[in-house]
Amino acid sequence: MRIGVDGGCWANDRGYGRYARELLTEMVRIAPEEEFVFFLDPASRARFALGGDNVHVVEVAQVEAPTVAAASDRNRSPADMLRFTRAVWGTSLDVFFCPSVYTYFPIPPRLRAVVAIHDAIAERFPSRTLPSVRARLFWKAKVRLAVFQAKLVLTVSDFAAADLARILGVPRSRIRVAEEAPASVFRPSMSPTSVREIARRTGVPEGAQWFIYVGGFGPHKNLDVLVRAFGRSLDVGGSAVRPTYLVLVGKLSGDAFHVDTEEVHTTIGALGLEDRVLWPGFVDDEDLAHLYSGAVALVLPSDCEGFGLPAVEAAACGAPVVATTESPLPELLEGGGIFVEPRDEPALSEALARMLMDRDGREAMARTALEQAGCLSWERCAREALSAIREAAA
């Protein structure tokens, strides 16, 4: 079987780019009998490292890379998308796989396809994820076309599947689930010296402790609520013995998703927390694993998460989590953290304070989180995705 793959998201550094890279690397490995044809723009081609007899590449010229042009307040040019469509049309394929609707382009009629839609966050919170009416219209049109052209829709959790059925109207019979997993680099650090050094480079002083957030800085991530809750947790005496910091990891510019940190900075200033909240920017995986390993907890207080990969990555490094109930995380990491309703500031503050003051409880949650994260694997994800692709091609 010849499987065409939209590789336009390969160069993305956020969750959907990692999903594509980890999933397809495993898919190629476990299915040597299948032939994979990757359609890549030059930026994605530069980062593409897969090889083997069952991997073929079709490079498609673009005026602007899909990961840049498909940003939250922009759209890809029709000419660039048409170049991808023509490239696919000119290649003999049995089925097509798009690992993220974010870089979706129209595919030839009658070509059977599986399209991955990771969540319905943009539909649930349009003004908090897509900053303009124009952006929302383009997003809605793209998703509607993708659902129309796809024989099956792939998503990352049963929680996300329920949202796609309820909000996008995709029949549950057309939805398949392939859960994400932590990459192999995310494991408990065996080097306390490295943990201290990476923390110091991030801005955490020697002897201090830290909470960590990893992800984007859009309004739906509720970082203003997190900062206020963090400030309140310090007031209960949780940092009396060891100074406590909040480390916000993520791209501050050039992110494909909506970034708006003005309210977060305003909140930090109003509370006088400028010296306690750190913005190290993007952190590579090797360093991030050390930061996760040494953290008091990973905090993910979003309005919604289709999966919540940073929480699972942190759990795989032995960190407990404080995360949103609007996600699959309460089930995926059951017993491995504290889960709170979105924007419930008192509950979030209480959870952070508990993590600071109850060391025995925190360590028990960390052990459970590590165990739960170990139940997830990209190989299983790849087998589930391959099953959906083969079903669509049949």
| Number of helices, counting only DSSP H or I runs of 4 residues or more | 17
Distance N to C terminus: 10 Å
Report the top-level CATH class of the largest domain.
Answer: Alpha Beta
Q: List segments where confidence is low: pLDDT < 50 over at least 5 consecutive residues.
A: none
- What's the helical proportion of residues? 40-55%
Share in β-strands? 15-25%
What does this structure look like?
This protein has 394 residues and is an alpha/beta fold. It folds into two domains: 2-181 and 377-393, Rossmann fold (3-Layer(aba) Sandwich), CATH 3.40.50; 192-373, Rossmann fold. Helix content is 45%, strand content 15%. The chain has helices at 15-30, 42-47, 66-69, 78-89, 121-124, 126-129, 133-149, 158-168, 192-202, 223-238, 262-271, 285-294, 309-316, 329-332, 345-357, 359-373, 378-393; strands at residues 2-6, 35-40, 55-59, 95-98, 113-116, 152-155, 175-177, 209-214, 244-249, 277-281, 297-300, 321-324, 337-340. It has a seven-stranded parallel β-sheet, with helices on both faces. It has a six-stranded parallel β-sheet with strand order 10-9-8-11-12-13, with helices on both faces. β8 (209-214), α10 and β9 (244-249) form a beta-alpha-beta unit.
